[in-house]
Write a structure and sequence with these properties.
The protein is α+β, with helices and mostly antiparallel strands. Helices cover 40% and strands 20% of the residues. Strands 1, 3, 5, 6, 7 and 8 form a six-stranded antiparallel sheet that branches. The protein has a three-stranded mixed sheet with strand order 2-12-9, with no helix packed on it.
């Protein structure tokens, strides 16, 4: 009896340890220093820890953060693994920031998307103080603008290539203008514009052409996903009037909420976009079945969202 009790507690302990060691996702934002002077710089580190094989999208950054903090430099996203747990993956990105006014500047949380879930960092606070001036220092006059005599020779030395290139362009433009004025004029018959090809036909033809290229089979995975998501973005823009070619992946995901695409197909679009971002920005390398499924999911979304009114009969070419 005692043997079975010990075995029972051993099994419980093993299960608890396996749950305690389960990989979790975490995002953080850390500053080297939260106190700087006006114009000085400090580093802001963004990190995301998550189970290996997850799809992760880092925050989309612009030149400035909200509140007047300027982004001087945006570093590349580095990839590493936890030294104690190879199942945990770590992505990090270093930002260099500054401010040109004194005061307290709140830094709002940064949002990450991991496996479709949104995680955010804690808010930070940057304190910027004025540069201290010595009140006993002598007051000095502002220096005037230094004037230097113009030298054509120096100008040619510094800008010779541009000057020569400008002359060549002028000669080419003059030659083209003369040719256009002297060439015989032809009369052309105006033809009616042919009906535009429906968006779904263009997209399906592009997917078929992409499949025949066999890019990922040639280890051109990044090129494969770039072309696949471009086809998807063009279709979404033409079919649903979403500015998908100009938007980031998370902006497209938000815009899809206001379309009539079935919820299951919205998730497929989101998965393809997230996987593509991981390939392009985090150097993720999906397995072959994931590449095949990505194209199939895009094709399925297109087939389920075809408009009946855009289906047109093929027109016969006018006889000459």
């Amino acid at each position: 009896m005692r043997k079975y009790v010990i075995l029972f507690f051993t099994l419980i302990l093993t299960v608890c340890q396996s749950f305690s060691q389960e990989s979790v996702s975490e995002v953080i934002a850390i500053m080297d220093s939260n106190k700087i002077k006006v114009g000085d710089q400090t580093h802001l580190l963004l990190q995301a820890t998550f189970p290996a094989g997850s799809t992760v999208i880092f925050p989309v950054l612009k030149d400035t953060l909200k509140g007047g903090i300027s982004l001087v430099e945006i570093g590349e996203i580095d990839t590493s693994y936890d030294a104690d747990d190879v199942k945990q993956k770590l992505l990090s990105q270093q930002l260099t920031i500054t401010a040109w006014d004194s005061g307290l500047f709140p830094i709002e949380p940064f949002f990450f998307i991991i496996n479709g879930d949104t995680l955010k960092t804690k808010a930070l606070l940057l304190e910027v103080s004025n540069v201290q001036l010595d009140p006993n220092a002598d007051i000095k006059d502002i220096k005037g603008i230094a004037e230097t005599p113009f030298s054509f020779i120096e100008f040619l030395k510094e800008n010779g290539l541009y000057f020569l290139g400008g002359i060549i362009l002028l000669l080419i433009a003059a030659f083209i203008a003369k040719y256009l004025r002297s060439r015989p004029k032809h009369k052309y018959d105006l033809k009616k514009n042919e009906p535009a090809i429906p968006a779904h036909l263009l997209a399906l033809e592009a997917l078929e052409a992409l499949d025949k290229k066999k890019l990922w089979q040639q280890d051109k995975v990044k090129a494969y996903y770039s072309e696949l998501t471009h086809i998807l973005r063009v279709y979404l823009e033409q079919r649903f009037e979403i500015h998908a070619l100009e938007q980031t992946s998370d902006e497209i995901i938000v815009a899809l909420k206001y379309t009539d695409i079935p919820e299951l197909e919205k998730k497929k679009v989101m998965n393809v976009l997230l996987l593509s971002d991981m390939v392009k920005f985090a150097k993720e390398k999906p397995i072959g079945s994931e590449n095949v499924d990505a194209l199939a999911e895009v094709k399925k979304v297109i087939e389920l969202t075809i408009l009946d009114e855009v289906k047109v009969e093929p027109t016969k070419e006018a006889e000459r």
